[in-house]
Design a protein that fits this description.
The structure is a single chain. The chain is of the alpha/beta class. It has a single domain, classed as Rossmann fold, CATH 3.40.50. It has six helices and ten strands, in the order βαβββαβαββββαβαα. It has a six-stranded parallel beta sheet with strand order 3-2-1-4-5-6, with no helix packed on it. A four-stranded mixed beta sheet has the order 8-7-10-9.
Amino acid sequence: MKNILVQGSKNKEALYHIQVSQNGGTLFKGSFEEELPGMPFFQEIPENIDVVWLLEPNLKTLLRVASIPLIIADITKLPEHDKKKIAGLPIIEGIMIPGSCRLGTMPPALFKKGSLGLISRSKSLAYEAAYETTKSGVGQSLVLVVGEGSLEHFRDILKKDLFTKEIREIV
């Protein structure tokens, strides 16, 4: 994946997840909202951003990034009236391409590079499926946790030039 922007946060848990993602191969173009150590900071979101990861999503930020092709955010804690305002946005809870990219709070130890693609509406079921397939020797090429995000344009999201040619060909 390319041109990934992360919502900066001094929250200890958020910083941990950003570091784990970077250690696993995720390359961030920079951060916005708050500066992060060792990463370029953007006051305004650059035009060429393909993916944005919101570690502390709120309605204001979600509306600010509404034009981004893919938004990674856990929106379960948003009030229902706010969720209605963002219906249709390309939001998923997490993505894991083992050995290449991790956006979301997925524990990397459960995943192994392989050929199986997983899509789940539930984080815990995605983790369980990844754990079981990894344990049986079958790794994953792509794991997507859709969560409460919209499935409406999901196939279109996967066909975008955000993913490798192999992943685009399977959808």
